[in-house]
Every structure is written in structure tokens, then in C-alpha cells.
């Protein structure tokens, strides 16, 4: 793809950000072009750019956690959560598309689906929700498979967090121990200040992804009712089962067991 930004002209906004290339990347499939297809492509590409930024932060965060740099890691997690708050609400833009406008081009997308979003799966795997079946579903896509396999085999954000909690002297060997250690942190926020802040940011990351899933499901039902997905799933029925996914189940369950007696 060749582009000109004024020959040897000094750096400009358009040249730095490759705007010519960027606005050529929205290739509609409908013919004659269906009006809403551009919105559909733009919103998905926007999500993918934010996923890229989130993965960049998560990778750095895991590195900082391994180095024991809690303040720096928490700063990045705050950045991740800020982006995710936008992702949760951004899905509503699609609801400005009339269901009939979507049906005009939906058949052209078959069998492509958000189910195959490599970067969303990377986000899940690197946060702590690894799924071998999902990894295998990318077998034919070498580029995606290689990236996902690397994340599948590497320690996740959850692994890095529990290792950090372990190094602080709390027990993390089993699920029960991780939960008990969380109760201890929740009971004594000031004694575990940075770790306490970290578990708060991590549970928020989990919560925001669940909120995204929920808003996506509502939008899908508003658009499609109970029709099957282009990816071949039952659609809303399948998506509802994903609401149970959690990156840090111990953090959630510890809240059930926390009592004032734990203050000690
Ligand atoms: C009109 C718009 C949309 C419709 C009708 C729709 C519909 C669906 C359906 C039915 C599924 C289930 C899999 C399947 O059988 O295809 C799905 C999965 C998914 N979609 Fe969407 N979607 C839309 C927009 C988006 C957007 C904007 C994103 C942003 C990235 C997105 C991301 C995903 C992801 C990540 C999954 C996999 C969820 C999981 O398995 O946990 N979708 N979508």
C-alpha cells in the first residue's frame, strides 16, 4: 500500500498516524453498499485497537508484578480499567443501527464472528481464563494460533498476582488458601495497602469484562432476538453462559467469607 504525505515534507499529523492507510482499512462487502456496514466495521476495528493497548498494558503489568513493582503495576491496571469503561459503553453505539439495516449485510459475514477475535481471546488468556478448546478453534489461523499458544503457555495476570501475594508471606498454594489470604487482605487494608489496591483493580477488571459481556448480549438480543450467530453458536443462549467466566474467582468468593471478626 503506497502513500504520500507531501514527499520530503516535515512530519505531520496525518503522516505520523498513517491516516491515509487507516481510512482505507474499512472494506465493505455489501453490494450495493449497505449504509450501516461502515459503522459495523469501524466499531469492531476500534475495539481491536483498544484490545491492542490493553494487551500492551497487561504484558507490562505482569512484568512489573514479577519485579515486585506494585505501584507501577497498579498504575497500569488503572489505565486498563479506564479503557474498559469505554468499551462497556461503546457497544451501545451499535444499537443506533436498525435491526433491518443489519440484516441487509449480515449474511455476507457468514461464518465470521466475534467468537474469532484473536485479541479478545488473548485478553482472556492473559488475564487468567485459558481455554484449550478456544485455543484449538484457532488451529487453521497460524498467526492467531501462534500468539494465543504463547499466551496459553505463559503465566497470566492471575498467576503473577498470586505469586506476588505468596512472596508477601501469605499462603497461595490452593484455591482455599488464596481465598483465605484474600480475606486477610480485605480485613486489613492498611497492612496490605498496595496489594489491597491491586486486588481492587483486578476485581474491577473482571467486573468490567463481565459488564461488557452483559451489554454485548443485550445489544445482540435487541438486534437479532434468538437467531443463531454467524459463528454457528445458538447466539444469545450461548453468550449468556459466558457471563460465569471470572479471571479471579477467589477474589469474588472471599467476599462471602469476610466477617468483622477477621479484623483481628
Ligand atoms: C450487530 C453487532 C453484533 C452482533 C449481532 C454480534 C453477535 C454475536 C454472537 C451471536 C456471538 C456468539 C458467537 C456466534 O455464534 O457468532 C458473538 C460473540 C462475540 N462477539 Fe459479537 N456481535 C456484534 C458486535 C460485536 C462487537 C462490536 C464486538 C467487539 C469486539 C463483538 C465481540 C464479540 C466477542 C469477543 C464474542 C465472543 C464472546 C465469547 O465467546 O465469550 N461483537 N457476537
Helix content: 55-70%
- State which percent range the strand residues make up: under 5%
Give, in order, the helices and strands. Answer: HHHHHHHHHHHHH
Shape label: globular
Report the strand count.
0
Task: Write a brief caption for the model.
With 264 residues, this protein is an all-alpha fold.
Topology overview:
Layout: H1 13-17, H2 19-22, H3 37-66, H4 70-90, H5 99-109, H6 118-127, H7 132-136, H8 142-153, H9 157-167, H10 175-187, H11 193-224, H12 236-241, H13 249-257
Helix pairs in contact: 3-4, 3-6, 3-9, 4-11, 6-8, 10-13
The protein binds protoporphyrin IX containing FE.
Protoporphyrin IX containing FE (HEM) binds next to α3, α11 and α12.
List keywords for this structure.
264 residues; mainly alpha; 13 helices; 64% helix; globular; binds protoporphyrin IX containing FE
Amino acid at each position: 500500500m503506497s502513500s504520500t504525505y507531501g514527499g520530503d515534507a516535515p512530519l505531520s499529523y496525518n503522516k505520523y498516524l498513517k491516516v491515509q492507510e487507516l481510512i482505507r482499512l474499512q472494506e465493505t462487502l455489501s453490494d450495493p453498499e449497505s449504509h450501516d456496514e461502515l459503522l459495523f466495521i469501524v466499531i469492531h476495528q476500534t475495539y481491536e485497537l483498544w484490545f491492542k493497548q490493553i494487551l500492551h498494558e497487561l504484558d507490562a503489568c505482569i512484568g512489573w508484578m514479577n519485579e515486585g513493582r506494585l505501584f507501577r503495576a497498579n498504575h497500569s491496571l488503572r489505565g486498563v480499567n479506564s479503557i474498559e469503561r469505554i468499551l462497556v459503553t461503546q457497544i451501545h453505539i451499535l444499537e443506533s443501527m436498525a435491526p433491518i439495516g443489519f440484516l441487509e449485510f449480515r449474511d455476507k459475514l457468514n461464518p465470521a464472528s466475534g467468537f474469532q477475535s484473536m485479541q479478545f481471546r488473548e485478553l482472556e488468556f492473559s488475564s487468567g481464563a485459558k481455554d484449550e478448546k478456544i485455543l484449538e478453534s484457532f488451529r487453521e489461523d497460524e498467526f492467531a494460533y501462534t500468539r494465543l499458544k504463547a499466551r496459553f503457555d505463559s503465566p497470566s495476570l492471575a498467576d503473577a498476582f498470586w505469586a506476588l501475594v505468596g512472596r508477601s508471606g501469605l499462603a497461595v498454594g490452593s484455591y482455599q488458601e488464596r481465598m483465605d489470604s484474600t480475606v486477610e487482605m480485605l480485613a486489613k487494608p492498611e497492612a496490605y495497602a498496595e496489594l489491597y489496591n491491586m486486588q481492587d483493580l483486578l476485581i474491577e477488571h473482571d467486573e468490567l469484562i463481565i459488564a461488557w459481556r452483559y451489554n454485548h448480549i443485550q445489544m445482540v438480543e435487541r438486534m437479532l432476538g434468538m437467531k443463531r450467530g454467524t459463528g454457528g453458536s445458538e447466539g444469545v443462549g450461548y453468550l449468556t453462559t459466558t457471563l460465569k467466566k471470572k479471571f479471579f474467582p477467589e477474589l469474588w468468593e472471599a467476599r462471602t467469607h469476610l466477617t468483622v471478626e477477621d479484623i483481628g
